[in-house]
Amino acid sequence: MRYSGRLWTEDEGESSAGDGVIEISNGHVKVEMASVxxxxxxxxxxxxxxxxxxxxxxxxxxxxxxxxxxxPRRFADEAKAVVLSNELAFxxxxxxxxxxxxxxxxxxxxxxxxxxxxxxxxASFVWAGLGQIYVGKxxxxxxxxxxxxxxxxxIRFGIGYVxxxxxxxxxxxxxxxxxxxxxxxxIEDDEALxxxx
Length: 197
Description:
It is built from eight helices and seven strands, in the order βββββββαααααααα. The protein has 197 residues and is of the alpha+beta class.
């Protein structure tokens, strides 16, 4: 994808800004300014930070380039994809594991919209089914929630005490495991990233 906008180096400031193009394709980032190629780098060596006001800072080879795209939302989505890809690739390496690969995976999962197992379990602790709804399993979550309402009615016959506790514990455990499974699927889907580059 090619993105046009204003481009300048952070050390020179906005006064040096000019028309620029950033192209992200085939595992590389290419930067052009005034139709002249400034550089081309492997995607895994590029870091993209949000700079606010629709600006993004690209850190490449120790240089900080500020890019103000004409279409900020589209480029922001691309930037998130780059960061996610690089986080997962790094987390899958021995070095990434040594310095906290799980932390990198948690950040990647957050960027990808995956759900936190702890929050899922806590939600189902508050009321059975809320954790499932949080994870995205709305139908199952609704079933758990309605089951608990039925169990409240069954308490008058004595059996509700047992069934309420069973459904409550099962909902908590299931919500936690469902959120963990979504994280595992992210890891499995992206384990090939370092090899593919």
